[in-house]
Amino acid sequence: MEMTKTNPLSNFLCKFKNIPVINHFQKGTKEPTTDTVKEKDRKHSEKDEEAVVRMTGITCWFGNLIANQNINFHLAKGEIHALLGENGAGKTTLMSILYGLYQPESGDIYIRGEPVDIKSPLDAIDLGIAMVHQHFLLTLPHTVTENIIVGLKSSRGIFLDTGKAEKKILELSKKYGLEVDPRAIVGNLSVGEQQRVEIIKALYREIDILILDEPTSMLTPREEEGLFAALRLMVKQGLSIIFITHKLHEVMAVSTRVTILRNGKVIGTVNSSETSESDLAKLMMGHSVVQQVGDRGHGCGEGEAREKTETILRIEDVTALNNSKIPSLSGLSLELRKGEIMGIVGVDGNGQSELAEVISGLRKVEKGHIIMAGRSIENLSPRKIREWGLAYVPEDLLATGLILEYSIAQNLILDRWYQKPYSGRLFLKEHEIRRFAEKAISDFDIRSATGIDSPVRTMSGGNMQKVVLARELSRKPKVLVAHNPTRGLDIGATEYIHTQLIAQKESGVGVLLLSLDLEEILSISDRIAVIYEGKIMGVFEKDVADTDKIGLLIGGNLSKSGLQPKPPP
Ligand SMILES: Nc1ncnc2c1ncn2[C@@H]1O[C@H](COP(=O)(O)OP(=O)(O)OP(=O)(O)O)[C@@H](O)[C@H]1O
Ligand SMILES: [Mg+2]
Fold it and tell me: Which ligand number lies closest to the CA of residue 489?
């Protein structure tokens, strides 16, 4: 394909991601290439009357980076179509084009057979298309209802009829099994609940084409099942769904067809029932999947050595309140040893976030003590705690992990700009900062349009996560608290992070891993602690851990598990 030259407006667009823009682009040639699209898909796309969405020859540049290259994509009515690809493959870009957030340099879009020009999300919604973003766009201080009706014409009067809106929200919630409380304040909801609000917000607009961008990355397995059930109900009711993911099991579990993107190009479209996880992995990555990190001999024989290692973080009887001033840690005690990964499992909202926040100094400890490497750290400033040896990968990186307007390099030194070698007498030492940033980018394979100077907000979701990880893992910490560290990362990047966490522990760091992904915890932890209603219910050595029993404890069910919670060490 002939490459078009850089369009200055796409550079401009980079800076204004998510702001609707007007289409100034010349439409280019519209010839779709068929060389990479599989025969099956071509046959399918011939049935035009069935295509609710058809995108042909879509090309989109950001600066010198081609995010979508001559893409053909077609969504049939009533299907769940997975869009699969590694971090930075171009999935969000393609769907942002369909939702009117970006204008492609070339290509055409047809909705129900009609050519359309989608200039903004308002146009998209008028055409019956809604998108739930990878990072939610809710306003936290407002109620669920306010968030759902904001921007609607019907809600523009002086008096809001919230009663009517609440009723409609409850009806939708019931219809699709998406439980939400219309009066709850969004900031007090778990991520899973917030996501349900986003989906109901879309359905409230009576759309029939729903785009979900990595909807499961923050869900527990149970919530994930709930979401899949809701999606199946939606397609039965006539909706058509595009489901962005890089998790293969989700493609197999929920989709009808799957389109694979790699480096901005379509590799193929296949029927999900006629493929396998390993075939998909090959298509997605261009090679077969390598060995699971967790299986790489760690553990055996190390157990005894670990027994003898000292405690690096001791949490004693800690009580803390959540944002609604309700106790969310109720006398929690835990000991993390040097050179181990301790995984914390539990249903979202049982105190995981508060636990991570009291350790990192972001939440007040009401009662109890936290001792890191022999020093009391409770209620110290986050900066002090970090200087004394903590690294922290927060759950919500957009709120606490990154400054979106800053460049990658600036985000990488957010925690150390005032220290040597980055700070000179009067000025920051630019070359030291650049050297550090270049190394981090290459070590972590952080991809962006213009290298270390790219504003973080122009990066793909997975690449943003890599920036936080690169900064935190390079701190040489004593304790690393990692909350959902592989959220939004593809298989390759997840594996890399797991290897890094193992390397940290092998160098003596105590790693506290909080994750909703039980598989992740089981694959790399040495010990597993179950959290329930702000308390630790039991601590298990990984080698003897029984997933059924852990599952029961996660639900707070002690008697059925036949276990007594182990008293805190
Ligand atoms: N607004 C933007 N400005 C500049 N570059 C961008 C912008 N949005 C995306 N990109 C770049 O385009 C490429 C594709 O990004 P996109 O967000 O579509 O990836 P993705 O497949 O959704 O990845 P992920 O799984 O990590 O979310 C990436 O290299 C990204 O850095
Ligand atoms: Mg994305």
Answer: 1
